[in-house]
Write a structure and sequence with these properties.
The chain is mainly beta. It has a single domain, classed as OB fold (Dihydrolipoamide Acetyltransferase, E2P), CATH 2.40.50. It is 6% helix and 46% strand. Strands 1-3-4-6-5 form a five-stranded mixed beta barrel. A hairpin with a 5-residue loop joins β3 and β4. The protein is globular. About 17% of the residues have low confidence.
Length: 157
Amino acid sequence: MRGFSKAIIAGNLVRDPEMRATPSGAQVCSFALAVNRTYKDSTGNQVDQVSYLDCVAWGKSGETINQYVHKGSPLLVSGRLEQRSWEDKASGQRRSRAEIVVEDFSFIGSGNGGTGGGYSGSRSSDNAAPAEPDMSDDVIPDEIPEDDQINLDEIPF
């Protein structure tokens, strides 16, 4: 069986995005989103929980996110979960981190407190991690053509 990894989250940026270039010149933007959740525990008390999720966006998607959002900005992202590991230079220990590699995103708020964003971004990708990231970008249309819509009754789970 071939695996499947997809994450869709909406949250607020924890800090300003960080843009950098790889040694080969590819642009990558790193940021973290705080995702809030409220639920009631077994005693009926309301509990607020926050998860901090690391994200990376490559190419034009990363450049656009870096240009238009800042600490506190709301953002919707979808992408694949990817685990990377490295050796900590200071301690020599093996470290790992799961992060969301952004494939699509949408601005869900505006800087003046309004709702709705004027831009959605998408990056095409294949299932295997490329040696160099695919830098092609497409703009998501406002409406999905009827023949491309998904019928939820056809999903087997």
